[in-house]
Amino acid sequence: MNFVFPNEANVTWTVMIVLYPYITGLVAGAFIVSSLYHVFGRSELKPIARFSLASAFVFLLFATLPLLIHLGHPERAFNIMITPHFSSAMAGFGYIYATYMLLVVLEIWFVMRSDFIARAKGKGPVAWLFRLILLFNLEENDATRRADHKISRFLAGLGIPLACLLHGYVGFLFGSLKANPWWSTPLMFVIFIFSAIVSGIAVLIFHYYIVSWINGWKTDHACVRSMTRYLWGFMIVAVALELLEVLSIAYKQTEEWEVLSRLIENKLFFSYVVLQLLIFSLIPFVLLGISVLFRLSRRLANALAWIASAMLLFQVLLMRWNVVIGGQLLSKSMRGFTSYFPGLWDKEGLLMAAVIFTLPFGILWLFNRAIPLFPGAAGDSG
Amino acid sequence: MSRDDDISRRDFFKFLAAGSGLLLVHCGLPSPPPGARKKDYDWDKHYWAYAIDTTKCIGCCACMRACRAENDVPPGNFRTWVERYRIDAADRVSVDAATEDDFVFEELPGDVVKAFFVPKLCNHCEKPVCNQVCPVGAAYRTRDGVILVDSEHCIGCGYCVQACPYGVRFISPRSHTADKCTFCYHRITRGLAPACVQACPKHARIFGDLKDPTCELSILLKQQRYRVLKPEMGTHPKCFYLGLDREVV
Q: Among partner residues A1, A4, A179, which is closest to B165 by beta-carbon distance?
């Protein structure tokens, strides 16, 4: 018989808390792609390097919005930094987020300084704004360019562990809660990092195609091919880890498995087994495999990469849903399950989630208007 | 009896007027706020704990009604509740809790061979995981061993709700902060028992001071065998259960 503790009738963490790790994952993933170019010298990723850095920045801008909407007292949000309680993993959030934001802003400043200077040389309020951003130092020569490159490379390198910390920390928030057997695993930290990289690469491929299609540009084949390879590799590791986590609990046949198996077979069967694993993991795995292993026409390879990245974007969202919501469906009485589906118009409902997820793309469009994120792409049009 | 020993009519009316005045003044005084402590209360001299004798609970839910009335608990949330365990001839276990509307249990079906009630509330743990995870320090333990929430500081993130293994915390729809049993802190610091303890007609709920070796709870814990809920969580609960069945989590 189904029994949940009386206070568990409604889940505490809603779709907003699904969205929060999803967005931070996109940040971490996009940043790592930019660092592959800036730090590891993957020159084929140059066409998308600025776009990925700007994407990381705009997603980072909105990463806290779902949290603020969810908090019972958003006006007290800064208590987390003013009176941090360091025995809590969550107390580090404000500092990690602020440090990472500072690093991303600084990296953008150094990477795009030449573009800022070009914009600052004009007249009017926008030019003045760029002069302000440049701290009224418009000097540019080979020495300054070398220094900018050196510093941006250092920041990109430093940003990799910080990106892992930012998102691994989110995994740790869940993985460290011993009260919930669906969350409580040290693997959660690693799973979140790999799924973040998958979602970051996927959103860049997906968005790159859309931007290119809208502007009539040709996508850079070498760049997309390289990203497709990375996407395939990282998705294999991410899905393998996700499966290993469940398989290890299932194989041990502990007391927890009795209730977790019921959770998977009943409450999460459709969203986890059917959607996340069978459809949105298996199909992209096959599509990307074909794209990577076989010599295909450019058009077909592009189509496969685009479909696979769109599906993986949804796969990671499903993964977040199945972790965050799935864990709360299981009662701590270990004798039953509750239910949850967000309303459309609720404060923490589907429409709000859609708006929050759309906003970064709008800001990215504005960013691109101010500083072109695909400087060489216009020449490839046709 | 001499005339001097008698109370004169004038003195009698003077006394009556003074007495009435005092009574009026007393009635007009504001009562202490619910959270106010008795002035001479010293929290270093107490260490509060709780015991539940599950063999005595009859599932009347007077404790739940008393808690709701005393603490104005929002509908749909519970600072304490009573669970009923039913085991049938095939050893199948089913559990339910009293409904909120009338705080009564539905009638038992005929094939039940064993049934018992288990009241639940915050365990006021020695190592409270809810306190550990609170990012702003709004969840705290008083020096007399009670886990409380500073609703003026809580940001309502719900992390403590997720972390509590016993499901006793909730986000109050009124204050939008974490809420839970306080052992009726406003009462115990004034020498009163928690409302649920006061209301229990079978003395199934026992509240006491572990620093007082002569109190009923301390003696009971020395003489009886008891268990705590989910000891594997390492939270060291201070709510001790007598006669607890192995099915209870």
A: A179
Is B138:B155 a contact under the CB 8 Å cutoff?
A: yes
Pick from B81, B97, B155: CB nearest A79: B155
Chain-centroid distance of CA A47 in Å reads: 20
Rg (CA), chain B: 23
Within a 13 Å sphere around the CA of A184, how many CA atoms are in the beta-carbon half?
Answer: 14
Q: Name every chain A residue with its beta carbon within 8 A of the beta carbon of B129.
A: 178-179
Residue in the block written with tokens 């064993």 = B114
CB B51 within 8 A of CB B216: no
Angstrom distance (rounded) from CA A76 to CA B158: 14
Burial class of residue A108 in the structure, from the number of CB atoms within 10 Å of its CB (0-12 exposed, 13-18 middle, 19+ buried): buried
pLDDT 10s digits, B186-220:
999 999 999 999 999 999 999 999 999 999 999 99
CB < 8 Å to B136, chain A: 76, 79-80, 83-85, 91
What gap in Å lies between CA B183 and CA B194, rounded to an integer?
A: 6
Predicted model pTM: 0.89
Among B83, B135, B233, the residue with its CB nearest the CB of A80 is: B135
Convert the pLDDT of each residue in A232-253 to its tens digit: 999 999 999 999 999 999 999 9
Proportion of chain B in helix, strand, coil states, percent, rounded to 5: 25, 20, 55
**Coil, helix or strand at residue A330:** strand
The residue with tokens 């996700």 is: A242
CA distance B74 to A310: 44
DSSP assignments along chain B, one per residue: --GGGSPPHHHHHHHHHHHHHHHHHHHHSPPPPTTPPPTT--GGG--EEEEEETTT-----HHHHHHHHHHTPPTT--SEEEEEEEEETT--EEEEE--TTT--PPPPPTTEEEEEEEEEE----SS-HHHHH-TTS-EEE-TTS-EEE-TTT-----HHHHH-TT---EE-TTTSSEE---S-HHHHTTTPPPHHHHH-TT--EEEEETT-TTSHHHHHHHHS--B-S-GGG----SEEEES--TT--
Quick check: A93 contacting B, CB < 8 Å? yes
**Cα–Cα distance measured from residue B224 to residue B242, given in angstroms and rounded to the nearest whole number:** 7
